[in-house]
Every structure is written in C-alpha cells, then in structure tokens.
Amino acid sequence: VAEAYAGDSLAGTTLFSDAVESVPDDGVASLFVSNAALLDSLQTENVAVSEVLETLGIDPEGTATAMTLAVDGDSVSLRGSSGLAAGAEVTGAGELIETFPADSLIAAGSGEVGETLGKLMEAAGKTGADPDGSAPEQSGPDGAADGIGELFGQASAFGIDLEALVASLETAGVFVTGDPEGDMGGALVATTTDPDLVQDPIQSMSTLGAFAGGDHFRALPDGLDGFSLKLPGMSRGRVAIASGGDRLVIALGVEAARAGLDPAQRTLGDADLYRQATADLSDGEQ
Fold it and tell me: How far is CA 253 from CA 132, 223, 241, 246, 259, in A?
C-alpha cells in the first residue's frame, strides 16, 4: 500500500518509516495514521482536542501511529507504535485480573488509571473555561467546567476528597460471571495507594444510610465494609459499593462484591483455561 501511488509515496517519508520500523512487517493487516493530521481534523468549536492533549502532556506534531495484526498458530497479537504515548512505564492489569473469580466469562483491566483519569478531568475543566483560564459566568447543564465542579462539590459534601481519591487509583478491572438464563453478576474493581481515601467515605455513607432506613439503602452483610443500593429501573438485584484492603469495588450483587474483595477463592490465576490462553503472553502484554 505504501508504494502503490504513482510519484511520492509513504515509503519515502520519514514519518512513515520511523513509525513502521518498530512493528512486525509480516502481519495480516496493517494500519498507519498521521497523528497531527487526524487530530486536527477532529477539532471543532465544541471539541478542543489540542487542549486535552496539552493537559495529557502529548504533542502529536511530527508523530504517527502504526499497527500490525499478526497470527501465529492459535496466537493472535496486535502490535503498535505511537508517538502519542508518553513513554513512561505503565503497570499492566494482569496481576489484578488473575485474582478475579475462576468462572468469570469476561475479565479486562488497565493500569495507571488514576493518573489518566486525573488528567482527563483536568482537561474537561479546561475545555469549559474562558480563554483567560477562568470559569464561564454562565454555562448550560452540560458544560464541562460546571459538570466537573458540581461533581467535586457533591463528593465533598459527603466527606470525599474526589481529586485525591482519583489520584490514588492504580489498576482497575472488571469481571462478569453467570449466564443469560440465570443471575448475571460482575464488578468493577480498583486498587488504591491510600485505602483510607476509600474506606472513610464509604463508612460515613454507610452510617448516614443506616439512619435513613428503608429498602433503597442497606449495609452489606457478614462484615463486608460498604452498602448496597436499589437503583431506579432495577427490577431485581442491588448495586453494592464496598472496600477492603487496597480495593474499591462497585458490584452487581453482594456475592460479586465479595468476590471482588476477596481473592482467596478459586481465581482465574488457578484456572487451566486462563493459563492456557495467556501462556504465550509476556508480562508486558497481559
């Protein structure tokens, strides 16, 4: 594809050659993207892409993304190179995923979520500000600056330092269990460097909910630290929010919350199917 055009071609550009030299050239499918050109085309009056990238510490000028899909026996891999990456070492989610229940239908995760979320929230606030950096005097209900400010304000009212909590997050993952004919369950699990930032507000909200009474808010049973909510539109089941050790769990059902908090049960790391599927992956690819 790179050499098929009559005259100047991608193969003759430094942008292309630098991007593709770090990915395998024998893949069954390949992708090349000129980062700056693509991102410039996405920028509009309502979407300030450049401001978001600046907050994330990314400069797309003179960079490109290349990817290739390779198949080797029963192993399929997607390899890529991108100038948009910050270059810092990123912690994978493999260790967290291996602690999820062994009967999980789906398990996925990501590392360094706190730093990324913090930067995205900062970028969202900037895109809603005036050019001089101040918040707009008037903003609609969907305004980014008002939305972020309201979120932090509501969290603060419950004694939650949301900014510090987000910054403390390390790895996050989700798992789904059950079957369509039975009860489906699952949970979002995040680890934190400061468990007190998670445990203290959960305990405070559990205490407030206990005073409120009623069926919508319940303390979790059997010594679990947290509470469950009956949300509008849920015909059955409850959303459980719990903490334990260095983990924050938001789950569909109490049992899923327990599974997310306690990796002492039989886990994916113990399951033959999981070990077979990940046997050919290096630590950096999990």
Answer: 47, 15, 9, 20, 10
